[in-house]
Amino acid sequence: MKVIILAAGRGSRLSPLTDNKPKCMVKLFGKSLLKWQIEKFREVGIKDISVVTGYKKELIIMDGIKIYHNENFEKTNMIETLFCAKKEINEKVIVSYGDIIFQNSVVEKLIESKEDFSVVIDKEWRKYWSIRFDNPLDDAESLILDSENYIKNIGQKTTNLDEIQGQYIGLMMFKGKSTEIIKKFYDKMKKLSKINENPLNSNLTFQLSYMTDFLQGLVNEKYKLKAILIENGWLELDSMYDYEIYNKLYEEGNISNFININNNERDLKKYDEV
Predict the structure, then answer these.
(1) Top CATH class, 2-265
(2) Contacts of 214 (CB under 8 A, 6+ apart)
(3) Long-range CB pairs of 44-48, under 8 A, 24+ apart, other chains included
(4) What's the start-to-end Cα distance of the chain, in Å?
(5) What digits encode the pLDDT tens for the residues 195-207?
(6) For residues 60-73, b (16+ Cβ closer than 10 Å) or e, as one string?
(7) Cα(83)–Cα(70) distance, integer angstroms
């Protein structure tokens, strides 16, 4: 089992915290997002960890991890960042966005999946989204599952709550035949995009395609992507508003309403990363 953490982004909506450091190195509850992730993966027994860097790569220094670099991070998105670590996509691999943290049970449930394609989905998303957005529909994307919890539709803008059965959290696992499938699919889609419009998202260049575009493309090719359903237990740090809300909940002792973290660090200063 191995992990690839996608940590190339700057995170402009977290400025000024990201003016001088990459998004994954912003501290939350006393530790950088990257440190939170690495600790959680190691706690569940995963030691083979790779990080794909981009913005201010020289600041990402962690013992015992492999580093890959997306030279074109300013002009690309998650898919291209992932395939900068293409050589690590084999056997059984977890892929994680670099701007999330999660409790052990989330990773453990993902690891337990028997499916070749497994994607973590928060079915209690509305409870979490309600503290982050005045109107959750402004940010939420479509997520429609079939009767066996395989993904039918993911990542589309929608104004219909019936089309949102959960939210993708930026954590997934590929194993078995799926690792070769996604590499061949990536090569195929990239080649087609050079001939005609981007087959993953006609509104964007291939390089700027979203990971959800890639997942939807796999669904369109009739691959079965299993939704691993959770009920909160994670946080995404995407904006200064997120940062302020999480710290407020932490100081008030209410962060456990959304994620279980180690509370023995409560004496850490709220803004020690500024």
Answers:
(1) alpha beta
(2) 79, 182, 185, 186, 189, 200
(3) 44/104, 44/107, 44/108, 44/111, 45/1, 46/1, 46/2, 46/3, 46/94, 46/107, 48/1, 48/2, 48/3
(4) 35
(5) 989 999 999 999 9
(6) beeeebeebbbeeb
(7) 9
CA–CA dist 69, 201 (Å, integer): 25
Separation of alpha carbons 61 and 63, rounded Å: 7
Cα 23 to Cα 7: distance, rounded to the nearest angstrom = 7
Q: Which amino acid is at 181?
A: I
| Tokens found for residue 232 | 């909160």
Give, in order, the Cα–Cα distances in Å from 18 to each of 56, 249, 273.
10, 22, 10
Indicate the length of the chain as a whole number: 274
Compute the distance between CA of residue 23 and CA of residue 238 in angstroms, rounded to an integer. Answer: 9
Contact between residue 68 and residue 7 where contact means Cβ atoms under 8 Å apart: no
Tens of pLDDT along 68-113?
Answer: 999 999 999 999 999 999 999 999 999 999 999 999 999 999 999 9
